[in-house]
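Sample entry as discussed:
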Amino acid sequence: MVCMGNICRSPTAEGVLRAMVEQSPLAGKVEIDSAGTTDYHTGSRPDPRAIRIAAARGYDLGKIRARQVKSQDFERFDYILAMDDTNVRHLRETWPESSSARVERLLDYGVKPASMEVPDPYYGSDRDFEHALDLIESGCRGLLDTLATHFPESQTGGRR
């Protein structure tokens, strides 16, 4: 999961997907992480509003710390999902030719909203964080359905 600074949208998506996977047959089969395309907040906890609003819906973001996307991520993960087109473009510009990772938007999965981007709530209100969480939950549900087709219950190995 990728956004610009890795303190609002992408750590929220990491926490949401992690919780969904833990409650599914995919538990233990999928590696989940988040990062930012910039290093502005490296080492920082998620925005307190993101933590609070996610916690109200049962998601724990407390252990997540911001980091920047590394070239190794393109080999480590099969899916690198950005919150908006700007970050998709940045990821594709830095994408190593040897990578087979899918670089897409999170909202390419799930119910198709009017906009396919999760808006950055950083300069907004609690309602903006709640709206971002609504979209992230939808995208993560769709992603979980997609992942389930790649990881049958009997499968235990392979890339994540």
Q: What stands out?
A: DSSP finds five helices and four strands in the chain. Residues 154-160 have pLDDT under 50 and may be disordered. The first strand starts at residue 2 and ends at 3.
